[in-house]
Amino acid sequence: MTCREAEKLLDLFVDGELEARLMRAVALHVTRCAPCEALLQQIERLQDALADAMTDAVADVDFSRLWPSIAGRVDAVQRSWRGLRGRMHELAWRPTLVATAMAAVLAVSAIALWRELPGATPAAVNNQARIDALTSDAAAVTLLSEPKTNTTVIWVSDEGPER
Length: 163
Hints:
The protein is mainly alpha-helical. The chain is about 60% helix and about 10% strand.
């Protein structure tokens, strides 16, 4: 396995998401390659820092009022639906209203289906970003670019590489 191949798999390796054969190949490569081992250690430190930050953030959240708030809203929704069902029953005998509602549903469905047809022009979405320069006072900055999937990941760490 080459360094380039191993680098692409390190995140999945750390998360244990690789099949057994690739897991062994990455582990073997990392034990024999100091730069890849250092990169693996950086990923593990980043993952630990994120886990610690998330644990601290969740510990600070006050959940004591969560369920009473949810229960109150559920009761309000149930009351609202019961009232709506009663009003729908009262209006159901009006044929014009029912026909108009059915026409509206059909029109919306037709528009939705038309937008999904082959040849229909989909709306273009541009979610790309361009980074012209990257500077940091951090001890370590790592950039991983994957042209095949058009993905770029930037790691910034206050801890320098271990020597």
